[in-house]
Amino acid sequence: MTVRAAVAGASGYAGGEVLRLLLQHPGVEIGALTAGSNAGQRLGALQPHLLPLADRVLAATTAEVLAGHDVVFLALPHGQSAAVAEQLGDGVLVVDMGADFRLADAADWERFYGSPHAGTWPYGLPELPGARAGLAGARRVAVPGCYPTAVSLALAPAYAARLAEPEAVVVAASGTSGAGKAAKPHLLGSEVMGSMSPYGVGGLHRHTPEMIQNLSAAAGERVTVSFTPTLAPMPRGILATSSARARPGVDAESLREVYEKAYADEPFVHLLPEGQWPATGAVHGSNTAQLQVAYDEAAGRIVVISAIDNLTKGTAGGAVQSMNLALGLPETSGLPATGIAP
Amino acid sequence: MTVRAAVAGASGYAGGEVLRLLLQHPGVEIGALTAGSNAGQRLGALQPHLLPLADRVLAATTAEVLAGHDVVFLALPHGQSAAVAEQLGDGVLVVDMGADFRLADAADWERFYGSPHAGTWPYGLPELPGARAGLAGARRVAVPGCYPTAVSLALAPAYAARLAEPEAVVVAASGTSGAGKAAKPHLLGSEVMGSMSPYGVGGLHRHTPEMIQNLSAAAGERVTVSFTPTLAPMPRGILATSSARARPGVDAESLREVYEKAYADEPFVHLLPEGQWPATGAVHGSNTAQLQVAYDEAAGRIVVISAIDNLTKGTAGGAVQSMNLALGLPETSGLPATGIAP
Amino acid sequence: MTVRAAVAGASGYAGGEVLRLLLQHPGVEIGALTAGSNAGQRLGALQPHLLPLADRVLAATTAEVLAGHDVVFLALPHGQSAAVAEQLGDGVLVVDMGADFRLADAADWERFYGSPHAGTWPYGLPELPGARAGLAGARRVAVPGCYPTAVSLALAPAYAARLAEPEAVVVAASGTSGAGKAAKPHLLGSEVMGSMSPYGVGGLHRHTPEMIQNLSAAAGERVTVSFTPTLAPMPRGILATSSARARPGVDAESLREVYEKAYADEPFVHLLPEGQWPATGAVHGSNTAQLQVAYDEAAGRIVVISAIDNLTKGTAGGAVQSMNLALGLPETSGLPATGIAP
Amino acid sequence: MTVRAAVAGASGYAGGEVLRLLLQHPGVEIGALTAGSNAGQRLGALQPHLLPLADRVLAATTAEVLAGHDVVFLALPHGQSAAVAEQLGDGVLVVDMGADFRLADAADWERFYGSPHAGTWPYGLPELPGARAGLAGARRVAVPGCYPTAVSLALAPAYAARLAEPEAVVVAASGTSGAGKAAKPHLLGSEVMGSMSPYGVGGLHRHTPEMIQNLSAAAGERVTVSFTPTLAPMPRGILATSSARARPGVDAESLREVYEKAYADEPFVHLLPEGQWPATGAVHGSNTAQLQVAYDEAAGRIVVISAIDNLTKGTAGGAVQSMNLALGLPETSGLPATGIAP
């Protein structure tokens, strides 16, 4: 059986990455490709790295064009997914790489996104407790945000094992592709090369409630998250430093054991051997999350470092992994565990 | 049938890249991995991006360890390949990613490399006229240098069609991985980021005689090459600007036609549509060479731009492509035509 | 005496750089700062590195605001300088960092810029033969383009000494600031980091006629230039490789002698010792041009490498150096010969 | 009066930067330049950006060579400063850019550096409460570490005003020059470009006790610091995110007021206007520290972002500023408040 896939928003970074992965997926045939303002253009002019699709012409994003596929990936601006999904009907698997259906709490959504809440779909981070089961056979999937992917993988085991106090502090560095392909002055190469800067400081970033949702679920109690995202001079990758006060009795061994157990069978989450630390360069283009844990005795804190490729595991890889689970394909199909380095 | 492959020099950049490609090759099983000073280490500590091989331990490079494979890839310092190859015997395909067997002229070899000439093996650039036939069934392959790959693909069609005077001028920018993984002060990140610099100016670079050899063969006459390599602040990629005076009668249309015809059936050489220019970022991690041609009427010159990934098409991809041809496998097996961007 | 300076276009890269230099100029007081669409904003929001001027508010660019200064620096889009200069009158020194008054040939101007020729002003590259005299006491100065600065310094001595055939081949890499601060998708950090690409190939770049003009003047005959500019993943710097066939009798010694003599007394052009090569990283933020020459005997070509900071010696440094000469100030005032590295 | 300065360790990054600043200092004449393994070389071959000193030849580092200057800057490996300082006598100002004399607690020193404690010198961070007075007339100065500079400036005001709980969490990104100029594989351009990675996680970094010392002094109680340093793909700059739980009664206004007051008169610490965030690119080459504060109400934390140039304010700028204070020169002499951007 070959799955026929359409991609809405094929000219952007998330759309391009999902196409890169689908091109190497043995069970997928690429169908309609659509775009907003880039409709009518050759894909080769916009995504020159996707050589096998260079001569495809982008259609306008409409339900008509997207209908008739087994799966539709949505890489649309926030707020546009609901209308498209509704028109596609329940027979089609819709995988939304946008934020619209990630949050369970309508008030959170409205506070951070400023528009009415569209609903909540099964959450596409299968490595979270219980999530894999919720994806099997799903017809709708909300792919997690890139930062929440890195941070939830980092801290969920500690919270699930009750090792950490419910006040997490997270500082993460992201490559510039996380900010998208729309041309803005502060994202110019001249501005970002050689410079690091923060944004959304003080709890303002939209991914904060999503982290809180995931970590609170793991902890079984409300967890607060102080989250500071920073922009790093690299095109891809997220390096997250996540920490929390250790509960009494935690030590380095027990901490490591919890993480070894949590991810022993996960194909895409790799706890590094002791003494080796994650690097975004080691997961460039791969669906792997690298993790390492430390117990800082003097400060009394658990520190977890996680590295992912924001466009692969953090977006399009998570989307394809979720599709595989939803359609009953092998979970790892089309998903590289190997990165490109140097 | 599964081909069993060994890699000598698995801890360096060329060795790591050939492993990355072999991991996705449907007909290859990865056997022995060897190294020089890194023997005894886990591959995961040296090539953390090659997750499926992380627990492999590197053996010392000896003929005993390398024996018993169908193909052995050599990523060794110059001058060491001959001894290893000799011990392996004729039953094994040996693909040398070093320079030892590239040059036909012993005097050229000695002038540029300062050691006795080891010999000449079939040349692993199948897109050159006649080269593909020479690779079928070969037991030894000399993989071209990265710069000669970019430059020969750029100018061979013009010379083969007698469009250009036999004095080529080439300026190329390379990513730092071309300089290898040995730690040298001028290759520190602090030194290379934000800076471009030349080296080997004035005909001193060792790839110069290899370019001359290839272009002269295409032209049917001796071609001189003024070659200036530069180091660019990026890990991978070569962008080569190759030009030569046009012969009388050349115009933009006839020039383009020659290139369209030369590469019409090549899976890994892509002449871009008019108006679009190569970028190394578009071939990152792919085995594709992007080309574009221009005729500068005012200056009377043919200008060809080529972009490759120095480690893929320029080294390890060329090696795997050659292996495929030598062993009668599909030429494109294991070789991505798709890059990773951004 | 303190010179009062105004800067029109203070929110862009050229305007910002001229302000950086003027801030350290002992004889200059900074007066009006103007902008186009950024008028009304604090400079600190747009140029946060210029801390001493952070609280200045940008005025709209009008002759009224710019009047009453001793010198006005224009960093305006092409075609806007003439009107402003006219209104300022002859009592004010006007230093134009745009292209409007660089070319002597009206037909060249119209072919490359597509608008009527505004005229020709004294050319602000004092290191060219005769240029310094033309700047003394000037009331109008046309600052050279960044590429022509790098290339003219590289080849003018060879042409003036009749060492080279009149067909130059130039390939240059520029940092992204050369493309300005307007947000365009291909200049996003995500696109430029890790990638090199050419543009304006085949004689199309607007700086080509300016190079031809300068080199032809030095040679005393018409010189053709095949020019290929490339965009490099760095914010600043130009590395130019300029070459030409050597005339009979040239050798390495005579070549070097000519360059030693040409620049012996120049404060801002530095011929490196033999064996050392220019790097843009070594002139970051400095007004120095680094040069090195080679004679490639096998190819019969003179190869000259030059490195400048495109915003300093290539734009704003050249502007301040010209102002110094025009106003009779010490030529080196306010101009760093020292770069920032690493 | 002109101060005569010697620099020991002139071939490294800290030594080069102190020379860059001294070259623009109106009251300093540069005397002896020494090095370890680079003794005997031209400075121009090692620090090509320091054009005015290019022909200086490095002497071996001995007390004889360094004697007879008014000030000696030491940029030596840890553990070597005490012996040199002793031989120089009390008549000379010795400014140590190494770690040897920063820590007051001998046990801390021994735990983190593994060698006997050499002593404690006046601490060269004049912006800390009381520090400026301690530097006036000093004959010995210990220049702070780069990370402690960024973090102490960020959190000292909050602790001095009793706004924060004594458990700080700090994650900082540093440019690669912080790791020095010795060639190590993990610092190669190929490895660091496009990648972020942590090191010294879990309280292991040697700058941790220095931060604790400074913040505890400000707080009047023992402060713990969970510190995670990361390596960013840029040559210079530190961006530190420092946070702590807010004490009851803190709000955004009171927080801002404390910082405004703390740094109102500081020439080199700049609290940005509300809504603007620090960027390392804005302080490239400058002695300025940019700060911004936020109160994250939901998480109950004070978050302070600081950006410095690790080589300027973080090392050599701090050294020159301290020299100015010790010798009674204007504090800002030779120190740029302006950065180079983009």
From TrEMBL, chains A, B, C, D:
This is N-acetyl-gamma-glutamyl-phosphate reductase. PANTHER family: N-ACETYL-GAMMA-GLUTAMYL-PHOSPHATE REDUCTASE, CHLOROPLASTIC-RELATED, N-ACETYL-GAMMA-GLUTAMYL-PHOSPHATE REDUCTASE, CHLOROPLASTIC-RELATED-RELATED. Pathway: Amino-acid biosynthesis; L-arginine biosynthesis; N(2)-acetyl-L-ornithine from L-glutamate: step 3/4. GO terms for molecular function: N-acetyl-gamma-glutamyl-phosphate reductase activity. The active site is at residue 146. It catalyses: N-acetyl-L-glutamate 5-semialdehyde + phosphate + NADP(+) = N-acetyl-L-glutamyl 5-phosphate + NADPH + H(+). HAMAP family: ArgC_type1. It comes from Streptomyces rutgersensis. Its main location: cytoplasm. Keywords: Amino-acid biosynthesis, Arginine biosynthesis, Cytoplasm, NADP, Oxidoreductase. Its EC number is 1.2.1.38. NCBIfam families: argC. Belongs to the NAGSA dehydrogenase family. Type 1 subfamily. InterPro entries: AGPR, AGPR_AS, AGPR_dimerisation_dom, AGPR_type-1, NAD(P)-bd_dom_sf, Semialdehyde_DH_NAD-bd. Gene3D superfamilies: Dihydrodipicolinate Reductase, domain 2, NAD(P)-binding Rossmann-like Domain. Catalyzes the NADPH-dependent reduction of N-acetyl-5-glutamyl phosphate to yield N-acetyl-L-glutamate 5-semialdehyde. It comes from the Bacteria. It is found in: Cytoplasm. Residues 4-136 form the Semialdehyde dehydrogenase NAD-binding domain.
